[in-house]
Amino acid sequence: MLLLLTDYLSQYFTFFTVFNYLSLRAILGVLTAFIIALIIGGPVIRMLQSLQIGQAVRDDGPQSHLSKAGTPTMGGAMIIFSIAVSTLLWGDLTNQYVWVVLLVMLAFGAIGWVDDYRKVVEKNPRGLPGKWKYFWQSVFGLIAAVYLYANASTPAETSLIVPIFKDVVIPLGIFYIVLTYFVIVGTSNAVNLTDGLDGLAILPTVLVGGALGVFAYLTGNIRFAEYLLIPYVGGVGEIIVFCAALVGAGLGFLWFNTYPAQVFMGDVGSLALGAALGVIAVIVRQEIVLFIMGGVFVMETVSVILQVGSYKLTKRRIFRMAPIHHHFELKGWAEPKVIVRFWIITVCLVLVGFATLKVR
Asked: How many Å apart are CA 90 and CA 238, to the nearest integer?
């Protein structure tokens, strides 16, 4: 909205032309979302406490988690709100990609909100039944996939880009829809599985989201794209404003979510943020790089798959508890140690992701 205003004012005051620069609007997006999250964080936590919207804790998990019972949850709503407001203020609202990412985030956030509401307000331990959660994730994931496929204007937008190999580009055709669906839904659930310790999911989300923002900026700039041998997709650069808002809102939330957490994001936050990361990776044609940079999310998901598969086939468990962060807790690692070490792993994996830009 403010971009439209500054465009109008630039006719009379040349100073306002500076707001046409993506880099400046990205910086303002970070700061705006961060400040909003800080301002509303305290009131949101107090409101959740007054409504007795508290986290339920499993008694078969790490004993240290029993003290977390009753901690306000559904705090992910403040992340979504901060991102949405900041993006609407500083983003180009005529850009289709901005709306796709925003609407996917809101749609998956709505699914998570229903699940959280049923668990913590209606006291239904099942929340939103798994089949219905997956159904609505599939519906929204497929809508986004079909829209992006139908509105692709160049072959590069529907081809799989393989990092490192500059000449390996795989045309997907209709299978682009299948890949996009699995990336969006898979990433949404992977972030959800990771959200089990104080701050464990949000900082990796911030790091990966910020990195994807850089990829978006480079992909949307024809000179940088040609130099780095990555596909140029017009208009994609605008997504950096959303990614910047995600970084700011995520850091603002981490202020309250860091150990010991004052609030948890709940499914409303984790499902929404995971889906946003997935659709951004698809738009900037970096699905494989997302898999690399989000290695912690992948590790958490694989640990659950292996645990369930092993128990069904052999009645034995591979890990003491899944997802894998609980396994390390039960081995004796203090919660902050698990969290920080997973953060360190994410930093390294994001750097590997950036390295793929030059190693070709």
From this structure: 10
Give 356's contacts (C-beta < 8 A, 6+ positions apart).
163, 164, 289, 292
Measure the CA dihedral 52/266/209/102, to 10°.
-80
Positive or negative, the CA dihedral 5, 8, 13, 17 is positive
Q: State the residue for tokens 């950036």.
A: 354
pLDDT tens digits, 310-358: 999 998 999 999 999 999 999 999 999 999 999 999 999 999 999 999 8
Query: 252: closest CA among 110, 80, 99?
Result: 80
CA dihedral 98, 102, 103, 107 (to 10 degrees): 160
Where do the structural domains in the chain lie, given as residue ranges? Answer: 23-160+171-284
Q: What tokens were used for 187?
A: 């990433």
Distance, in Å, from the CA atom of 343 to the CA atom of 322, rounded to the nearest integer, reads 18
Q: How far is residue 56 from each of residues 8, 65, 190, 302, measured CA to CA in Å? A: 51, 10, 21, 25
Residue found by looking up tokens 């609030």 in the block: 263
Six-digit token string for 267: 């499914």
Per-residue pLDDT tens digits for 145-198:
999 999 998 998 999 999 888 778 899 999 999 999 999 999 999 999 999 899
* ω into 260 cis (within 30 of 0): yes
Predicted TM-score (pTM) of this structure: 0.94
